[in-house]
Amino acid sequence: MVPQTVATAMPLPDAISDLFGLGDLGLIGQAITAFVAAFLIANVLLVMAAFAGPWGKRKIFADFSDRYAITEHGPWGLFIIPAAAIQLMSKELIVPKGVDRPAWDIAPIIMVFSAIFGFAVIPMGSGIHLADPEVGLLFAFAIASLSTLGMMIAGYASDNKFALMGGLRATAQNIAYEIPLIVTGASVILYTGSLQMSEIVAVQAETLVQLGPISIPAWFAFVNPFAFVLFLAAGMAEVGRNPFDVPEAPTEIVAGYQTEYSSIYFVLVYLSEFLHIFLAGAIMATLFLGGPAGPGPAALGIVWFLAKVVAFFLLTQWFRTAMPRVRIDQLIEIGWKGLLVLSFANLLLTAGIVGVFFA
């Protein structure tokens, strides 16, 4: 029997179809199973974001600053999660005079949608994979970039100078760092020869070095650590974490593009921040850390995948507490004059290595 891998695993909708015998319903059955699979994954992501936002973020920041954080709301303060959700959603939705509707209403939805939809092509292990198109990596980058559109719309439609400044900053920042991010990702494609996410993970399942009984996998973080560091830096800027959180910059522009949002709209904007952090961690894990690969049986793939995503989230919170914010002019200079040049240098170097040693 051939062991199941990410490349050979059955997509989650097909597994649900076989489990409930919906294959005979044709297109209707496919639509039902796709909806159920997407619903399950979206709810897992929302639960993770709920833990990360009201609870995890505060706990981590308190640990770094030697404080107790939340202690009074249930065990370990976990009841702050439903309490914060009820508090925010029960508040009045204040619509400032002069906002441009429906653009102002659509912007938070675009931000959340772009994050959740990006997970459609991410192989999470243990058979949890919605779709595996041949251009999966391109799809993930394209969908994730829609968040820039949402932030720009939010800033422009709010009829507020601070919100507009935040939207302009977000657009300038994402353009400056999205190019190095994609160019660095292209260096991985040179190794794999494919944009398909499952193929990228499958290539990394090979052994890079054998040290006695220890096998070091061919994760691209080990094969090309320079590209991994570049991708990490550009990813931090894409999700707007320190030292690159200038689109919000509370000490400068109140809250940036989200200044005029309240109640459920603020919840959507707030959730989108953490969902995009998870999406960035998922793409990084897939490209450089073997995706769901890890010790033990293949059934533990989803555990290792989530562990890598959570590790990236913890890293963003570490940076948030330990690194000062750069100025907007410094941020743009780092992107265009630093990371962009280094990413193209990495691409040329990778192309040379692949052409000489793997041709």
Structure, explained:
With 359 residues, this protein is mainly α. The chain has one domain. A two-stranded antiparallel ribbon has the order 1-2. The chain is globular and about 60 Å long.
Q: Which terms would index this structure?
A:
globular, 359 residues, 65% helix, 2 strands, mainly alpha, two-stranded antiparallel sheet, 14 helices
Topology:
Layout: H1 12-20, H2 27-64, H3 80-90, H4 103-118, H5 136-144, H6 146-157, H7 161-192, H8 197-204, E1 207-211, E2 214-217, H9 220-223, H10 225-238, H11 250-253, H12 263-288, H13 301-322, H14 328-357
Antiparallel strand pairs: 1-2
Helix pairs in contact: 1-2, 2-3, 2-12, 2-13, 3-12, 4-5, 4-6, 4-12, 6-7, 7-10, 7-14, 10-12, 10-14, 12-13
Protein name: NAD(P)H-quinone oxidoreductase subunit 1
Pfam families: NADHdh (PF00146)
Keywords: Membrane, Transmembrane, Transmembrane helix
Percent of residues in helical segments? 55-70%
By helix and strand content, what is the structural category? mainly alpha
Cα-atom radius of gyration: 21 Å
**Number of structural domains:** 1
The whole-number mean of residue pLDDT values reads 81
| Structure summary, number of beta strands | 2
Largest sheet: 2 strands, antiparallel
Transmembrane segments: 27-51, 106-129, 135-154, 214-234, 264-289, 301-319, 339-358
Pfam family, one: NADHdh
GO molecular function: NADH dehydrogenase activity
GO cellular component, one term: membrane
